[in-house]
Amino acid sequence: MKEVVTGSSQQELETIIEYNFGTDAFDIAISGDEFEGKGKPDPSSYIAALQRLEIPSSQALIVENAPLGVQAANNAKIQCIVILNSSPLLPVDFEGIIKNENIFTDIKMASGMLKNWCGSHEIK
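The structure corresponding to this sequence follows.
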């Protein structure tokens, strides 16, 4: 299953998904509108995603690009990595909230780790 959890509005989420991926790209799409007043680092959106997917947190991996998202993952007790891509943030911006080996400068750098993780965490 593929899901996306964002603090963005439902309208913005739908526009981004349709433009970049197509309307059927994700099985679950959770927007910030569902958790008004409970934005990241509140873990509510990630916990709701796990419940909708009916999987334990040990079977999930969150890919983040912002410190508040990492804190939300930590608060939900879900493994997380950071992919910076074109972000102006630096690894030092995540100091104390995630291990340096879980921070990647771009998707290519993370691809091996993601393939290994996906291969060892098949949902049964």
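Residues 3-120 form a domain with the Rossmann fold fold (CATH 3.40.50.1000).
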